[in-house]
Amino acid sequence: MRYRPLGSTDMSVSEISFGTWAIGGSWGRTSDEVSLEALARAMDAGVNFFDTADVYGDGHSEELLAKATKGKEDQIHIATKFCRAADIHSREAYRYEAVSAFCEASLRRLGRERIDLYQIHCPPTAILRDGEVFHVLDRLRQEGKIREYGVSVETVEEGLICLQYPNVRSLQVIYNLFRQLPGDELFPKANEQGVGILVRLPLASGLLTGKFTEQTTFAPDDHRSFNRNGESFNVGETFAGLPFEKGVALSRQLSWIVDGRSNMASAALRWILDNPHITCVIPGFKNTSQVEANLAATDVPSFTAGELDKLKQFYKNEVKQYIRGPY
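Given the sequence above, the corresponding structure tokens read:
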């Protein structure tokens, strides 16, 4: 496992880390026993950073991480998120009393005295422009409840707004072969300011595994069913904002990236890791085999300059026009 600095913080994190949305809920049936085995496998492989949120399974993923990392609190970094357990459009959800309560609840579930990275969970753009929440987070940091803080954003504009606040240490962004826009302006500016980049949904909700067909179906409690067209939250969080059938067709056009790189998922992750501005990717998982498949990306060859240009043109000419939702 290779490690990269988390921006200008004193934390160094595994370049392949993991998100726990899937084991918390909204990705179909899960098993706690299987989830804990997968978490153990990841840590055995050197993964030292996990991303979660208070709304993943109503806190269940935080509780699973508490069990998995018990006794390893000084070795394993945990990032969690807040605000979506309330009305995200209400300014009251970002006042000190509310954020402190969210934080205390996460600390209890995580079994920790301090959160390594506390992130605002995709708030409205107006909340970020207002900026009051950043003063609240500064206060929590001074109180020792959080080590550092960052923001999970939906758009490049929101990321640029966050960079105006000097104590923001990370941005969590959707970035993958189907959603390349953040790499043009946002990532270089974040890098200049010592702000780490965490890449979520690197496989576009599974489209970039190459395993889906137009006939693939998902369980009713899987967001790939109930949010396919943005019915419950930003459509970009599901299949990178692409209509499912179009995404499947586009993934077939990318079959060539597998040559010499084991499988499509490993190749898609390698493309992200080749970007020098990236701190880490945080793919999801539901079992040990998925953890191992994602970890395999560390060993596949990088893309050549010609291949990178081909992938950039593919995004501009074949993909960009079909992406729905703000980004």
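The longest strand covers residues 115-121. Try to locate this feature in the token string yourself.
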